[in-house]
Design goal:
By secondary structure, the protein is an alpha/beta fold. It contains five helices and seven strands, in the order βββαβαβααββα.
Length: about 170
Amino acid sequence: SSTVSQQDPICYLGVDLASTGGDRSVYVSVDADGNVFGVEYTEDAPLTDAMDRVRELHTFNDYQTIMVDATGLGEGVVSQIQEEFGKRTVEGFKFSNEKKQSLYNTLKNQLQNKEIRYTHVPNADEPENKMISELMDLGYSYTQTGKVRIEHPSGGHDDFCDSLAL
């Protein structure tokens, strides 16, 4: 993979779980210095597969925090891995419009301030490039109450973006 190498031993994992068939589960590892050192995904895999992958990644990287999408079916995954690794290590994040906007504001600031680093190899079919493409495709609209809604284009995805943001 073309990711930058891990510089700091303290690291974090963001997991966006597949919510439906045909969806992707995405795993993004970032160290405390903001180096994205691991981006991977699975498609059409059961949630038990996601739990196993989180276990494996944690065995290799000993994450300080594992932030998992706990929306919908993700809640069961979160409680399962919290039992194994503890609530201090594993946190669930339930997406709502407000929480997603706050999460993405933080991500935007970190990207603008160059606090997050990753490798991008143009035209290479790497997971990092899927992440970059999704980030570039993100848009926003306004709700009826005038709040900003961050969204992917019709037919697009934001799994990599959500995972990075987490």
